[in-house]
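User: Fold this; tokens only.

Assistant: Input:
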Amino acid sequence: MPAQHCPVCLTPVPENPRYRRYLCTSCAARAATAEGRRLVFSNAGPWGGFVAVHADDGSAYDRHECFVGGRPCYADEARFGGIVIEAVPMELIFNPDDIEALLRAAAAEHPDELLSVFQTQVGLWFRPERRLLIVGRATNGWGTFEDVEGEDIRTQFPAKTALDASQRQDWSRRTLESIDGDPLAWADGHARRSAFVRVARRIAIGLDAPMVDWYRHVAWTQLYKLGRAAELNPSEELMDAQLPICRQLLARELEALAPQAVVFLVGCGPTADWFQWFDSALGFRETARHRVGRDDVRYGFVGQTRAAVLPHPQGRAETPLVEAALAHLRVT
């Protein structure tokens, strides 16, 4: 029995280590644009290449991104000819078991504190092995109260409610529903007031993401997934309670997303080294260290993924940090 399945319909497919998320023939034939227009992909000729057209009128479609059954996918020339369509890895976003584990870890320690969960967010056009994973320190004021057309979709909660299984499941559902069809659309609007987002944006663009919709080509996560609902970093007690789970989650995220590069904007100096609690668990191999202003920047690898560990950019010169990251992350 094959160990690999079509990520859209779950039909067993022949195992292919290079294309772990490729679609079966039936699902690949349903590829369409975001507006629902069917697409046809082919090679440019016997030598290969990539051509995409709209099925209804044969007009050119100048992108690789497509949708199958509402699932974001990416079409490209296969290594030995032909076309392969792979699903963008969204499964990490929809994982209520992980959320519940985080809630249970914190509930007994901070029963009256108002908390929020930051789930991994994958841009619509994130492409495994070609794109950037951005890692911050912790959720900071994430999950504000909202009301959309009379529907309560709050993702902030008192920790003690997580002691009750039914309420815990309800908060898991609310958290997942708060991530819409364009998970990182919020990021671009934060660039004016957030040094973190500005630096992340410039690094992503430096790694060939387009300027206009750069946020759709990256994935975003945090070291610590559970934080205070107020705009504060989690307390040391709250970090300690979730640390074992967060180490496992981040390692799994890196494995599943398989980014070309990962940048940790988390601090790596002697007084603010958040990464020190994760580097060994991730198997981080440091290859160099560089001084930028008053801070150290660490270069290395997590598996085959290039990694740069930078300080949080708030209050620091941003251009030297961007240049230092790209010096290691950009593949020439």
